[in-house]
User: Which sequence fits this backbone?
């Protein structure tokens, strides 16, 4: 990753989309405090935190998608400056001082996103973000630095 990567936004909601922004949030193995999912398959230990890059928002805006507010796609963490094209399962990220997440899998875009744009989920394939498990619980804050750690041994 070039330059400093950061947490651009933290988003928490009761389930569904969009997820409103918050300044900070406690994160445990189950996910962000107060965050919910309409469908059981959208959460769980291996899908506790969902990451998406603000650069994806910018590319989608160029494609004519009306996505101006973080949380539009139901992500928990909107990153800036993190080259998510180089991430893969097993990679670990420190989000701020203590919180560490491990990439579990690519986030599979679902039909719920059709409410944002009728071209979804197809338009989001290949740039839909990542779902992560929590390795070290902590506090997630907007503006926190993102550090890429060694992959899980």
Assistant:
């Amino acid at each position: 990753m070039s330059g400093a990567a950061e947490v651009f936004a933290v988003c928490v909601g009761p389930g569904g989309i969009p997820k409103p922004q918050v300044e900070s949030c406690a994160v445990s193995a189950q996910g962000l405090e107060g965050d919910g999912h309409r469908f059981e398959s959208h959460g769980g230990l291996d899908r506790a935190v969902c990451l998406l890059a603000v650069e994806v928002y910018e590319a989608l805006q160029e494609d004519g998608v009306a996505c101006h507010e973080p949380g539009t796609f139901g992500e928990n963490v909107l990153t800036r400056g993190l080259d998510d094209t180089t991430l893969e399962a097993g990679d670990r990220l420190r989000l701020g001082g203590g919180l560490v997440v491990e990439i579990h899998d690519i986030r599979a875009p679902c039909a719920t996103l059709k409410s944002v744009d009728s071209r979804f989920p197809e338009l989001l394939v290949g740039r839909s973000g990542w779902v992560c498990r929590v390795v070290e619980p902590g506090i997630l804050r907007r503006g926190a630095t993102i550090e890429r750690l060694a992959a899980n041994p």
Notes: Residues 54-62 form the longest helix (9 residues). Residues 5-142 form a domain with the M1 Pyruvate Kinase; Domain 3 fold (CATH 2.40.33.20). Helices lie at 54-62.
